[in-house]
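Subject: for your reference before the review

Hello V.,

The reviewers asked for a structural picture of the protein, and I figured it would be easier to keep everything in one thread rather than splitting it across files. Below is the amino acid sequence we used in the manuscript, unchanged from the supplementary table.
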Amino acid sequence: MLKLGPELFELLNAQQWVGNQQHVIYGKGGLSTLQIQLIESQLGFRMPEDFAFLLQNIRDPGEVLFPWSNFKKQKYDDMIAWILKGIEFDIHANNLWLRRWGERPAESSVALEKARTDFKTWPKLLPVYGHRFLAAEPRRSDNPVFSIWQTDIVCYGANLAHYLANEFVQRDVARHVLKQNVQKIEIWSDFIDNRKEFLTEGMDAETTARVLASVGNALRGKANSAQRPGVEIKLTADGNALVAGQLIVGHAALEAKLHELMQQSPPPDLYVQRHNPDLSAETLSTFEAVLRKLDFGPIIVLQHQGKDIKVSPGTVWRLG
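And here is what came back from the structure prediction:
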C-alpha cells in the first residue's frame, strides 16, 4: 500500500496536475507540532497521525488544498455544514432515509431535525481538497478518503497516499485501491456499500414523479427557467468519452469538444453518466477537473435506484 513519505512527495512534486493553480510543495517545511495542536484545540478532536504528518510536509501557496496553514474554524464548520445540507436535500427531494433513524416522521421538519441530531454523532471528517474528506475517526492512520456530494459518496483513496496520487497524478491508482484492504468507517462506508440494513428501500409515487421531473428538467435545460439543451456524456474505462454518441479520444480532444459546446447559444447542460463499473476514480476526477477548468459546475446529482425507478448514477453540469 502506498505510504506518505519522500518517494510519494517526489512523485507529486514532479507530476502533480492542478490546472493553472500554483503547485503544492511536498516535503519538510509545513506546519509545526504546536500549530497542529492549536488547530486540534479548535476542532475539538485529534487528527490521525498520518494527516498531521502530511500537514507537516506541505506548503500550499496557491491554496489548492483546504487552507490548513491559514486555519479558520468557521471555514471548517462551513464545509461540514455543506455536507449536512446535501444530506438534507436528499431527505427532502430524493426520499433518503436511514434505518438507524427509525420510522420516518410524516412532517418534513421533524424528519430533518432527527437527521441533524444524529449527524452530530457521525465520525468526524477532515477536508482535503474540494469535496474530498479524510475520515478522522476512529483516530488511526490509513483511513480512507471519501468524495462526498450529497449522499453520492465514493472512496477516492484507500489512504491519504493513495488519494493524493489518485487525485493529482496521471496514473490509474483507483484500480489498485480496489485491491487494498480499505478500512471501513461507520456510516460513510455504509453509504458506499448501500447495505439493506442501513438504507430504506424504494420511493413512493409522488417522489418518483418529482425525481423524474427534476431529471427531465435538467436534461432539457429548463432548470432555473433557462431553456438549455442537454448533451449526454458517457465516460469509458480507457479514459475516453462518448459525447452525444461521438467517440472522443484523449483529454485534449475532449477539452476541445467541450469548448465547441460552450460556443453554442445557449450552451448545453452536460449529463455525465457514471454507471460504468470499470470506470476508475482517476478518470472521473480528471474529467471533473476539466469541467471545472472550463467553468462548468454540478447542478444536480442523479443516483437513486429504487423499486419504482432506476436512475443511472451521474451528474448534470451547467456552464457558469
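For the response letter, the relevant points are probably these. The chain has two domains: 6-75+118-193, 222-319. The CA atoms of residues 23 and 169 lie 12 Å apart.

Happy to draft the paragraph if you're swamped.

O.
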